[in-house]
């Protein structure tokens, strides 16, 4: 083999390598370009547009199907949501955000302002009172006692006892006072004067002060007796039971509907300081509940929410129609962006394919050169 033969083989190897490499390089480029069909007159130039631009919709549809069937599956999402590690991460994040919120110096008024909600205090009073009035109207056929909690009913029994004791003490204090003594004396004199001649005669022989001295202790003893207390207690408890057994409608009608509405409005205005409540920092409301809320409630709440969310994943994903979302997004990508995405993933492989074209072309050129020597 002389030098001419060697140059023949080398030249054919180089030519083959160039042809093989250039062919693969051109084939890769033709995947993406041209972006649009090229026409010469009415004749469309073959292989235009490129494969990916031409099959863009098919690619988008295929990607959407791949994502929903193999990547973001309901089973995979459910497994992730109930994963203990993921739950702990969510729990930590939720606790951090809740603590940041309940330790905030911001007020309810500021939070409402962030939501573009302006609070009118007068309107708030009116709406609260109106709500209570409407709720009261719905209960007109119910007994007043049925609307009270058991604890409050028990307190009414205690209140009747305290009221009876208080009335008893007030009566004793009055009878023992100067005004009470004068009242007894006046009653004795009126009693005797009402008895005609006999009463006048007894009055002339009786010293009013001595009569009071004798009658006053008897009255005080009678008022302070245990039986008097029981009588007062039973009387007040009985009246309370009668009141509680009345229908709500009867009570409001007896008082007057307008008066009840006015009373509700006045009660709301005097007992609920909306201005103060709206301007009090959130941390003031939560200072005694922070540990209980964060430690006890949030952990359970997060677990329940994630479990509930996991149960609803198939329905949610079906409603989201992820495959159509992916298809729509990919179809809307500029072709340049699609090319960038594919090259970002496969650029290394495309280069290897180009190099392989050079190698195979070179080997084929060598084989052809050797064959040419023997022909």
The succession of helices and strands, N to C, reads HEEHHHHHHHHHHHHHHHHHH
Per DSSP, the total helix count is: 19
Write down how many β-strands occur, each being a DSSP E stretch of 2 or more residues: 2
User: Which strand order spans the largest sheet, edge to edge or round the barrel?
Assistant: 1-2
Strand content: under 5%
Q: Low-confidence parts lasting 5 or more residues at pLDDT below 50? A: none
Q: What structural keywords apply?
A:
single chain; 375 residues; mainly alpha; 82% helix
Quick recap:
The protein is 82% helix and 1% strand.
3D structure, described in words:
Helices cover 82% and strands 1% of the residues. The protein has a domain at 121-277. The relative contact order is 0.16. With 375 residues, it is mainly α. The protein has a two-stranded antiparallel ribbon. The chain has helices at 3-32, 51-54, 56-71, 74-81, 84-102, 108-114, 121-138, 150-175, 178-193, 196-205, 208-224, 226-245, 248-255, 257-271, 274-278, 282-286, 290-320, 322-332, 335-374, and strands spanning 39-40, 43-44. The chain has 19 helices and 2 strands. The mean pLDDT is 80.
